[in-house]
Design a protein that fits this description.
Bound molecules: 2-phosphoglycolic acid
Order of helices and strands: EHEHEHEHHEHHHEHHEHEH
Low-confidence stretches: none
CATH topology: TIM Barrel
Distance between the termini: 16 Å
Helix content: 40-55%
Number of helices: 12
Shape: globular
Oligomer: single chain
Radius of gyration: 17 Å
Mean pLDDT: 97
Number of strands: 8
Length: 250
């Protein structure tokens, strides 16, 4: 049985004061016996505040560099974020791929680095653009992105992965993928993991859907066979809507 994992992605939002208020409120709402894991991916400026105030919530980074240290102005490394206490880290979010030159190659380096030097679990993001979707290339894109991201990643590591399928046309647009599209794509993700690593690893990997997930639609996504959670942007920013997400998935 795969335990659902529901992670809010704050992106470039929240000061330390705002982060503390949110985490404290949500912690008082959770009792630790939920059927799902809940987490927040926070900007590094407030990760420590989040970790210090979290008990049941998992705290994740939103990105990390693949070198330990060096002349990489503005970047942070795996030892640095491990020291902060994050348990997960988003890798290859489409906003980083589209705006900050993240490539399948750098995604692969970051995933290998996380597995090699830490216990931090990557939340690997993949997903097609609107044009690729309209041209019927979703399956090809998913399979290629996965293959490239997981070059030289062993099966034991891969089984721990969280993979977020996020169609780019559904992110921040309010236009979420239909349940059928989301399930179908997440099934393709699992099938590609099966091709790469076999049935056992494929049965362990957790696959999230992301893209305009809200309290009103999360339950139906999670009811799908191959959807084991969600990565949530906009609806994770307000305490009330994150509580509603928890209520819908308890
Ligand atoms: P959204 O963002 O929920 O606002 O669409 C999802 C994401 O970018 O992970």
């Amino acid at each position: 049985m795969r335990k659902p994992i529901i992670v809010g992605n704050w992106k470039m939002n929240k000061t330390n004061v705002e982060a503390k208020e949110f985490i404290v409120e949500i912690e008082s709402y959770l009792n630790g016996n939920e059927n799902a894991e809940y987490g927040i991916a926070a900007p590094y400026t407030c990760v420590k505040t989040c970790v210090d105030n979290a008990k049941n919530l998992l705290i994740a980074g939103e990105n990390v560099h693949f070198e330990d240290n060096g002349a990489f102005t503005g970047e942070v490394s795996v030892p640095m974020i491990e020291e902060l206490g994050v348990t997960h880290c988003i890798i290859g979010h489409s906003e980083r791929r589209e705006m900050f030159n993240e490539t399948d190659e750098t995604v692969n380096k970051k995933i290998k680095k996380l597995f090699k030097s830490s216990n931090i679990i990557p939340i690997l993001c993949i997903g097609e653009t609107l044009t690729q979707f309209e041209e019927g290339k979703t399956e090809e894109v998913i399979r290629t992105q996965l293959k490239n991201a997981l070059v030289d990643v062993c099966g034991e590591c891969a089984s721990k992965l969280v993979i977020a399928y996020e169609p780019i046309w559904a992110i921040g647009t309010g236009k979420s993928a239909t349940i059928e599209i989301a399930q179908n794509s997440c099934a393709i993700v699992r099938d590609e993991i099966k091709n790469l690593y076999g049935t056992e690893v494929a049965s362990k990997v957790r696959v999230q859907y992301g893209g305009s997930v809200k309290p009103e639609n999360i339950k139906e996504y999670l009811a799908q066979e191959d959807i084991d959670g969600a990565l949530i942007g906009g609806a994770s920013l307000k305490v009330e809507s994150f509580k509603a997400i928890i209520d819908a998935t308890k």
